[in-house]
Every structure is written in C-alpha cells, then in structure tokens.
Structures
1.
Amino acid sequence: MRQDERVQVYRGCVIPLDLLYDVERDVWIRLEGEEATLGMTDPAQTRAGKLVAIRFKRPGTVVERGRALATIESGKWVGPFPAPFGCEILETNEAGFARDILLANRDPYGEGWLVRVRPLFREQLTELVSGEEAFQRYRERIDELGLNCFRCAE
C-alpha cells in the first residue's frame, strides 16, 4: 500500500482522498462550485473490464439518485452508471470516449470522467464519503470482492 497526502493505494486500487465517493455505487465525485464531475472508480473499471461502449443520457436530462446517467458495456458486463444523487446532466464525455473507449480503464479519475452534473438536492451530498473514511470503506469492499486492480495498457 502506498500512502501520500492525496492518494491511497490498496491491492493496486487507487483511491484519491480529495474526491467524494458513493462507495456502494462505485462512483467518484469532484465538486466544483455548483457543479460536479462524476466517474467510475478504479475498482469499478477493474470489475467491468475493458469498456466496449457507453450510451450517455442527453445533457438537460434530470436523473434521480440511483438511476442511470449512462449505460456502460464491457466485455463481461452491461449495466448502469448510477447517479449518486439527484442531478441534471450538464455535459458528457461522449467525444472523449468516441476517440478512446478505454479512457476510464486507463485514467478513471482524469480523462476518463463520464458526466458533469448539477446536483439538485445538496442534502444528498452529506451521504457521500471522502478521505480516510472512503479509503477504509474501499479496503473492506476490495477485500470482500477479492479484487486486485489493474489498468489497461496502451
């Protein structure tokens, strides 16, 4: 396990401490004023495997917590990318994934972001975790799943 001020690594899974997480849904959240950028966590992209397609909901769509912001398809799984809170979709990374479908597999916390949203219910943000609490929850989840994270090579 590697430790520094902003990132923890456990069994190869990178967990940045400066993000918020919905651990149950495997979604990371970067708050930026009244907006938020969302993506798949490193454990989520590892579990899914190499992505083959993503179908995004349109900007302007309002999505309830737990409902799909996008549908993700990989070689071994098809399922929703769920909203960690009620939100309106402002922008998707559809163009980025059109250029390189493996963005989330290679860089889940950077270029591999999925959607930018406007949270509708700020009180739902209090249910998210960050920092050491998020890392401890992910350690437990990673152990339960017997997961060892990896990234796709070029």
2.
Amino acid sequence: MIERFAKQTIIRLSQQFSVVAVTGPRQSGKSTLVQETFPDKRYVTFDDKSVRELAASNPRDFIKAFKDGVIIDEAQKVPEIFDALKLVVDSEDYNPGKYILTGSSQFKLKKKIKESLSGRIGIVNLLPLSIAELSESGILGEDAYDYAFNGFYTPFYDEKKHFDREDWFENYIDTYIERDVAGEIRVSNLSQFKKFIQFCAIYSGQMLNMESISREIGVSANTIKSWLSILENSFIVHFLEPDTNNLGRSIVKTPKLYFVDVGLLCYLLRIESKEELLLSRYKGAVVETMAVAELLKSRFNKGRKAELTYFRDTNGFEVDVIADWHKTYALEVKSDFETEKKQSANVRKYIELRDTEIKGYVYYLGDVTCDINNIKYVSWKDWGVN
C-alpha cells in the first residue's frame, strides 16, 4: 500500500476544524485516503442516486442522523448539504473532525464552502501520487521517462487493476467532461471543450496565448478565459504567475500553464510510447511539467499554498520557478542526466541580481543529489522533497 503524505495533514486539520474537505482531480485517491484515515467513521457517497435524493430532501436531518460524524463523498452533488452543515456545526459543541467531505469538482465545492463553511473548514488538495510517495513505498523504478510517459494517477499503481493506458485516459477525459464540465458550459460547446483541452497541451511549460487558442478553437477570448478557469479549478492545469520582483527591469505579465499530470499531458500530445517521448520536441516541456507538478504535490500534501512563480524579462532572460517558501528558491529544470555548470547559469545570474539570500536549485534527471559551487543539483528521485 502506498502511504499518502497528505494523511498527516488531514489528521492535523481534523484536530482543529469541525469539517475537513479533501478535494482534487478525479482518480487522485481521495475516497480511499479518507476512509483509511477515519476507518471508524460512517461513509456515504452522493454518487449513489438514492442517497443523494435522501440528503437533498431533508439535508439537516440527514446530517444529524450521523451522531458520530460521517464521510460524505462527492459532497458537491447535493449543494443543500453545505448550508445544513453550517447550521448543525454552529448548533453543536465544538467537535473537530466530525464531518469529512470529498469532491472532485472543486469549482462547485469552492463556491459552497465560501458561502456556507468559511472559518469552519480545513481544506486539503490531493493531487495524484508523487515521486516521493512512490519512493517511500519502495516501488520507484529507475527510469524517469517511465513516469513522465505514464503519469501518476492512482489506478496505474494499484496492483489489483490492469488498465490499457490509452483506454484509461480516453475514459478519464470523457468522464471529466460529462460529470464535471457539462454543468458549467453549454452542451453545444462540449465537443469544442475537448478540442480545447487537447490544444492546451501544447502550451504546458509555456506562457499562455489566449488569442491563439481562441482562433484555433473558434470561440471568444472571454470563453477561453472561462474554460481555463474550469481546468484550473478541477486540477487539470495549474498556472505560474510572473514573479513580481522586476529587479529594475521590465518583466512579462503572462502566466505559464502546466498540466498537473504528465501522463495525461503525453496522452493529449498524442505521444504513444516512452521512446516517442524521448524523441519528441515536447520532451523538455514534459520534464518541466513533471517537476512543477512535484513541487505542487509537496506543498499541497502539507496543506500549504503553492507560492510558485517564474521570472522572465522582456529580453528573454528566464528562471523556470521561483519558490517563496520559508526561504526563496530559484530553480531551473533540465532534461539532462549529468551535472554541468551551464545548467545553473540562469539561476546564478538571478541570485546575483537579487539582494536577498536565495537558494539555487537545478532539477535534473540524474540519480545523485549533490551540491556543486553553492547550487544544489536535485535528482529526479528527490523532486518535491524540501
């Protein structure tokens, strides 16, 4: 069994908040994790139509029927449950960790949480498996490109399940559009939305060009902006905003887009094998996407905000990632297997330009993590560990 690092964060929050929500993309392991974390707590799912109808008919009584608390899976499918939870929590004695919610449609969850449960709820964003989790469980292999190609969704690492990769991702996209997206956009636009996701894949690791996407898909720039928000809120993509420290020079103001899972990215790019990935013009973008995703997982598993940006000025000087955590880190991602001084050139230049202490990192595909001339070269096996 793969131990999920977010488990300790869920326990920590459950000792403080009456309600804890675990949200994230489909197939990231939310339901399994909360049931393992709270094995003695009753579990219900609103995927079950009869349970959903029962809860919607009298949500407050439904909640009060579970005197010892309850795990509610796919809670966003009964929006009335959030107001009922607020009333019940406010009427009871303080009882942290009594109610546990999960949901994969975060744009619906966020709205209801903000309206009804603000200040009463702790939230954990659970992404697919991390390299560190696979390593800790003793099942991490030796080839980074195996993981870059296949990705990190939990079903691929369940020894009881055997999926054809292409079949699985095709079904994943269809299910995502039918269950999570269909209620957010016009039905007539669903086929265009699928084309939109595929087109976004070529921008992973790059600055957004909404006008280009708009022209290609044939919808307005405002629609593209709305659709990008849907992808972000359902954990399909993540955006890095430009670093606000301009160091006395003009900087770009366009965010960079990254897919949260590289397996899904490779599928959308129509890369059909690891060998094809190695020869692909997208290889560098896929590796960079994997690195950024591991940083996100590390932060989210701890219950923290991403706090990741990137630096690029109008002359083209760029540093892939700036992480403003307990310290500031300047980080470059390279698809090389050997440590070379030129890999750290941009990081070193950025450190020289800043007047505060900054740690320089290079994420690369070698097997050894080491310090060379005050720059830390981090093996792919240690990505996200900090």
3.
Amino acid sequence: MPGCPHQKKAIDCTCTYGSCSRHGKCCECIVYHRSLGEVPGCLFSPEGEKTYDRSPEALLRDRRG
C-alpha cells in the first residue's frame, strides 16, 4: 500500500506468521484482517498471538489475562 506511514522491516513485525505476504506491511495487514472481522496479531501479547486466533473475542481474553 503506497504511502502507508506504518511500514516496518519484516524483522520488526511481531506477527509470527512470517510467510504472510503482508508481514511488516501494517496498513495492508489491518485492511486484510478488518475485511475478515479479525484483529491483527501485533495487538496481542506474544502468547496470544501464537494461537493464531485473530477474533476480537480472543483479543479480549488475551488482554484480560
């Protein structure tokens, strides 16, 4: 996504799904997950992110501890 101010080097992206074509491309990642009713993995704790459950409910469980 040209002009996205939130590009990261792939090494700085906290998502563990490294083979994703959107890895490190924050704007593309957010658009993709929103279109599926999901939340990007970077908003989860490291433990929560590794479950690959990107549902809003999973984020709430993860944040509540």
4.
Amino acid sequence: MNYVEIAQYMAFAVFLTIAVIHLLVWLRAHREITHLLFAITAACAGVNAIAEARMYRADSVDVMSYALRWYVATSGCWAIAAVCFIASYAPAGRIGKYVATLIVAAFVTAMVVNGFSPASFLYTELTGLREITLPWGERIWLAIGEDNPWRLVFELAMLAILGLVAAGCYQFWRRKDRRRAVIFGSAVLVFMLCFGTHAFLVDTGRLDSPYLSTFGFLALVGFTSYDLAGEVMRTSELSSKLAQRESDLRTAVADERNRIAGELHDSVTQTLFSTAAIADALPEVWRRKPDEAMRGLEELKHLTRGALAEMRTLLLELHPATLLEKDLETLLRQLADSMTGRTRIPIELEIDGTMHFPEEVQIAFYRVAQESLNNISRHAHATKVWLSLVCDAPNATLTIRDDGSGFDVAAHGAGMGLAIMRERVAAIAGELNVHSESKRGTTITLRWNGHSNNGDDDGN
C-alpha cells in the first residue's frame, strides 16, 4: 500500500469518526436532523475516499471502468447527502429549498446514467490510462477517455451547490451570525478549489496529481463539524441554565408558598380565632351586659373586615396579575384594611386625584406601600398610620407616615426591606425618600413623574 492510499484510508477513518459522533448527537436529540444529515454526508465521503483509493490501483481499462463506476456512484451519494445537509443547515429560504431539490434531481439522474454507462458517467469510452509518478516515487493511474456530454450536468450541479452555500452564508451574515458565515463559506471555498483543480487540471492532464476533492471535502467536514460542535455546546449550556432557572423557580415558588402559609397562620388564622372566641362569648355577655356586648359586636365587625381584607391581599399574592386589573386606590385601601384588621392600628387613607399608571409603575407603588406597612406592623410600635396618594398627572406621590419609634436610616438603609424598595423605585426612574427620627416616627415618600419616563402625559 502506497502513501496516497494510506492517506485515503486515514481520511476514511476521520470521516467515519466524525459521522459516528454526529450520529450519536442525533440519537441524543432526535429533533436535530441537521446532525443526522451531516453524519450521512461524512459517512458517504468516507466511502468515496475508499472508492478513490481503489481506483488508483486500477492497472487496466476494464478495472478502471469498474472502479470509476463505483467512484462516481459514491460521489453522487455524498453529493446528495451534502445538498440535503446544506438545505437543512443554511437558511436559504423557500427558493433555496427548490434549488436544492433540482440539484438532488440532477445528481440522481447522473447516478442512473452512471449505472448503465460502460465507462461511468464521466466518459462515453475509456481510451487508456495515464500513469503518474509522484515526487516520492509512487505510481498511480488515472483514466483517459472521451468526455460524456452528461458530465456537464454533474458539474453544473456542483456549481449550483456553491450558489446555494453563498446564499446561506449571506443569510447568516444578515442575521449577525458572521462567525458561522465565515467558517462555512471558507470551508466550502477550500473544497471547491480542490474540486476545480481536479476537474479542470487533473482530468485534462495539465497536472499530474492525485484527486484532491477528498481532502478538500475533509476540510469542509472538519470546519463544519467544529461549528456544529460549538452549537451543541451552546445548546448544552443553555439547557443547563434553563435547568438551573427551573430549579430556582421551584425554590422561589416553595418559599413563596411557605411565606403565604406563615402569613395565613400569623394573620388570618389568629384573626378568625379571635372572631370565633368573641362570637362564642357574645350570647352570655349579651344577657349580662348589653353595652359590653355591643362593643363586642363592633370588635367582631372589625375583625371580620380585617380577615376579609387580609384574604384578598393574600389572593393578590397568589394571582399577581390581579394587581393590574384593579386601580391603585382600591389596592391601597385593601392594604390599609388588611393591616388595621391584623394589628388594630388605625390607618388614615387619603386619595387625591386619579391617574392611569403603567403596569410596572403601579406594581412598584403597591409593593412600596405593602413593604412599608409590613415594616410598621413589625418594628415601629406605632399607634397611628397615615397613607396618602396624590395624583396630579403626570406626577404621582405616595406617602406613608407613622408615629412609631423611628430608626436610624443610615444604619438600616440596607435592611428592613429598604434596599428592595429602592431597587423597585429605581426601576421606574422614580425618587424614594426616607425620613425617620427616634420616637418621632417615619415618613417614606415615593415620587414619580410620567413625563420624564414616558415622554407623554398619561392623563387623568
């Protein structure tokens, strides 16, 4: 076995290895039909390399005729597979699909003619062999004969493949996928240069050289396999990120459920327990002290309204889309009723004007009010709260004030939910001010200007 044959068999091994790799990728993800077509293309190219190696050993016209027929048949197979792969891989559009269909039809016609031609599809008759002595002393044989007129169909189809690839590279470039356009275009250019050298120099006797198409196609397969491997890695990375996000989402959902369950236990359950205790005691109290019973009924009314408001608030947490279905005034009133029913702290609510808020702005206003009231109930030891919303389109101001113990803003600026509130306000390009003094309460003010954010007036 000479060096040229060894090189051909090495090329076959490389083609087969690449084919197996992409076949395994396709088996792992059946939707990736591109990898299956590429695996078939690489396998056909490997078989074509073996057919070419056997052709070099043909030392008579009869043997060469037989070897040529198999060489052309395997060439047609990988050409058809390559066109199918390119049509799947490159975004050539509907016209590209039609062109690919015509190219495949041309190659199928060539293979049918090749099966009945005595001297393969390339020649109408073989007139002899041309012996080539390579620089290192090896000898190979190439065919000499009269060209078959049908051969032009095969060569035009090859040129059409180049046009199909050029269209695909152009679409890659338009889609800003320039790396893929350069890799694919360069690989095809190398292959076509090798194929052209074979077709116009080796076949015509102007160049004494082995066929170069195998090694040109090996370069194409290598570059394309590299690009497809990068795509697989990117897909794998995206899948890992998606799995991580799904895990984070499940954790967040579990945390949110635990939080809502805790609030149900701490607020609604306790309120309903107090309501049940008062309701059980009322009949006896009514018989003995009617005035005391009336106060109990009043307490029962407040507890029931508070529990109802708290349940509505929790339902909002379970269905966040509801935050956008109701106006901000209704949402703030619901928050106030919920806190009063839970903590017995009176809240003076003032709404001045109405305004249509963008979705993200309404959610930010609601969350700031919610977090502020939660902080008051947990930390402020307040006896009264003032909550106001002033709308003077395109401006809106939300103020939450209490008469509680206050806190050091500098020391707690990143705690008590203030950091989250600042992030929410920054996201809508609003302004958040926090003022607090020891034993003199806290005032939180959120200001938002619709003109500076939207460039238009939202209107009353």
